[in-house]
Structures are given as structure tokens and as C-alpha cells.
Design a protein that fits this description.
transmembrane helix, YqfX-like, coiled coil, membrane
Length: 123
């Protein structure tokens, strides 16, 4: 019986020691186990900020292309899509292209939904 109790105490001590050792290391370990990679965690915030800005910049131009295309093909679908993508780009830092794509896309959708039916109703 003593042997079993000793094993239980030893296991309990090992788990306490493990918890005490790991209290200092509260970080993600996925990159540590990847083969052949080194991750410098010092400038993580700067990398994420620049990545978000570049994604917003690209998304702003894609939304603007959708907005311009909405004047020629599928005005409601492409206009609303460009407005949504423009809003996302605006939130990610591409203020000018995001605002322009929201405006141009919504105007294209509004013209198709409201102005053109009035034109056909009058003529």
C-alpha cells in the first residue's frame, strides 16, 4: 500500500512542478514544432499592422473595380458587393478607395433600382 501512495504523491508533485515551470511560458508553441522555421516574435504587432494595411489597400482596389463594373453589368449584385467590400477596406485602412467604391457601387444600384423603372414608367 505504501508503494501505491508513494507513486500517487510523486505523480502529484510532478504535475505541480510542471504547472510551476509552465507559468512563465504562456505563448503559442505551433511555430516551435514546425520543421525548419524560425519565428521572431519581437515585431509581431508591426507585422500584423502592415499586413492589415496592405490587405485593405488591395481590397479597396478590388472593390473599386467591382463598383466600376457595376455600371455596365449586374448593377445590383456588383454594386452591393462593391459597397460591402469597400466598407471592409475602409475599416482596414484604405479610406479613399473604400469610400469611393461604396459610393459608386451604391449609386449604381440605386440608379438601376429607382431611376430606370421611373424612366420606363414615364415613357
Amino acid at each position: 500500500m505504501h508503494r501505491y501512495e508513494d507513486e500517487v504523491k510523486e505523480k502529484d508533485n510532478r504535475s505541480r512542478n510542471f504547472e510551476e515551470m509552465n507559468r512563465e511560458y504562456k505563448e503559442e508553441m505551433g511555430a516551435d514544432f514546425a520543421a525548419g522555421t524560425y519565428v521572431d516574435r519581437g515585431d509581431r504587432a508591426e507585422f500584423q499592422e502592415s499586413e492589415t494595411k496592405s490587405m485593405g489597400y488591395s481590397l479597396g482596389w478590388v472593390a473599386l473595380v467591382f463598383a466600376i463594373a457595376s455600371w455596365f453589368v449586374w448593377p445590383v449584385l456588383l454594386g452591393v458587393t462593391s459597397a460591402v467590400l469597400g466598407f471592409i477596406a475602409y475599416r482596414q485602412g484604405a479610406r479613399k478607395t473604400g469610400a469611393w467604391s461604396m459610393g459608386v457601387g451604391l449609386v449604381a444600384a440605386a440608379v438601376y433600382l429607382f431611376i430606370i423603372p421611373l424612366y420606363y414608367a414615364v415613357s
